[in-house]
Structure to design on (461 residues):
């Protein structure tokens, strides 16, 4: 039963039996894995708040051959994002969506340093109080790109012609970019401004991008594009996506959250 | 499981559906039941049936009860100016054990969890807001679990309740009694310092 040490993010947790937890972890060294933390839900648990979602931990675990779940032996906090997730409902929902994207698009046991660094930088930017919506859109583009699903909008997937600088690109339901003549006309439009925003996302760190975030309608178009790609890749919607957008709109329009209950 | 008679296999399969009961435990319980007096089995079956037939949710506070409204909501001895909000009915029992709290309750039956797709419409917030429309309630104590989901829920509920002119408080958080400070992690310690009291 080999003992491993790793640096990891807690992506999500599930209750197990009376006082245990199953944790989905993204480790830097071994990729995504699932582990059991015995007694983690007890009031005097030795894990304390280490296994709360979005916490970066220094982890020690045992792995048995042929067992899917590893056994978490020890965890210590490297960086906690508990306060941001707990103090703001919208930031908490945003982090949940980010975590959901990692869970869905990262294969098990395949280390990905770029995704680990992306998650670190994004969560740090949340902590600095940057524009939550811009950070989520940033993470979406990068995560889908690193997972191999984000389309390259520089050329048409139909005719192979490069996209003209001032022309719109049309994204079909299968996520493929097409020029005006190859598209059926019922696809999602990526304007030159959207393509410019995507280029900025791919060139800058999250905090810098969020500092001079594009207007809300452009971020909404990016969100629609991400939704289309996620639907095509997973053949379903992510619940956290809808909930994040709902809570964000409620916050942006004060009073709507109360109206929803009337 | 084919080595056992079909009724035993059926019983083991049903027991395995219970939370925290695996294959081995289900087998052990099934064989214990086989050796149990018929009268005791009847009592067990009767108790399960009674729970299914008689237990309902209180129409005021959503607590599980056999009389609607529940005994907390109808008791004249309880302080009607305070409502303590908990996630699950068993959390209410933990608070009652202290014998300190004499107010009313409201059970949400869950907590906001974007990862599980649990949104504001999936927990029982609406009933709480309706109860607060009367001038009787002066304070709402949020006693959701001290984890990310519980804190987010407490935050969301407080945002809804504050505009109604009701005082909103959160239960204190920090190091558990009987533990050693040496083992407290930084988040717990931070909460302890935030919630410190003057002596």
């Amino acid at each position: 039963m080999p003992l491993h040490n790793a640096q990891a993010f807690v992506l999500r947790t599930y209750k197990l039996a009376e006082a245990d937890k199953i944790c989905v972890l993204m480790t830097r060294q071994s990729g995504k894995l699932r582990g059991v933390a015995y007694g983690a839900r007890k009031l005097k648990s030795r894990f304390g708040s280490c296994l709360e979602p979005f916490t970066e931990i220094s982890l020690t675990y045992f792995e048995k051959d042929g067992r899917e779940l590893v056994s978490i032996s020890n965890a210590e906090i490297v960086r906690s994002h508990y306060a941001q997730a707990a103090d703001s409902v919208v930031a908490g929902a945003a982090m949940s969506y980010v975590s959901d994207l990692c869970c869905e698009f990262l294969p098990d046991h395949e280390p990905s340093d770029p995704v680990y660094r992306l998650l670190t930088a994004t969560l740090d930017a949340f902590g600095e109080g940057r524009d939550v919506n811009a950070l989520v859109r940033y993470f979406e583009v990068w995560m889908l790109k690193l997972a191999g699903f984000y389309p390259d909008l520089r050329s048409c997937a139909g005719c192979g012609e490069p996209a003209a600088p001032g022309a719109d690109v049309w994204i079909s339901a299968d996520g493929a970019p097409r020029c005006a003549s190859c598209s059926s006309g019922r696809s999602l439009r990526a304007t030159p401004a959207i393509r410019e925003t995507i280029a900025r996302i791919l060139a800058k760190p999250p905090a810098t991008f969020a500092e001079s975030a594009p207007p809300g309608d452009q971020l909404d178009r990016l969100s629609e594009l991400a939704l289309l790609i996620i639907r095509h890749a997973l053949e379903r919607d992510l619940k956290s996506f809808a909930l994040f957008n709902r809570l964000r709109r409620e916050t942006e329009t004060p009073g709507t959250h109360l109206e929803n209950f009337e | 499981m084919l080595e056992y008679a079909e009724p035993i296999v059926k019983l083991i399969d049903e027991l395995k559906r219970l939370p925290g009961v695996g294959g081995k435990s289900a087998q052990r319980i099934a064989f214990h039941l086989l050796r149990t007096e018929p009268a005791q089995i009847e009592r067990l079956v009767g108790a399960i049936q009674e729970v299914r037939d008689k237990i309902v949710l209180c129409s005021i506070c959503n607590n599980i009860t056999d009389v609607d409204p529940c005994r907390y909501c109808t008791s004249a001895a309880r302080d009607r100016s305070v409502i303590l909000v908990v996630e699950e009915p068993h959390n209410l029992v933990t608070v009652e054990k202290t014998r300190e709290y004499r107010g009313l309750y409201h059970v949400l039956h869950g907590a906001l969890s974007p990862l599980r797709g649990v949104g504001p419409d999936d927990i029982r917030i609406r009933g709480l807001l309706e109860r607060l429309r009367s001038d009787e309630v002066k304070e709402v104590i949020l006693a959701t679990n001290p984890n990310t989901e519980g804190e987010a829920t407490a935050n969301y509920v407080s945002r809804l309740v504050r505009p109604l002119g009701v005082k909103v408080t959160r239960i204190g958080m920090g190091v558990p009694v009987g533990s050693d400070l040496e083992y407290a992690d930084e988040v717990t310690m931070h909460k302890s310092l935030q919630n410190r009291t003057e002596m």
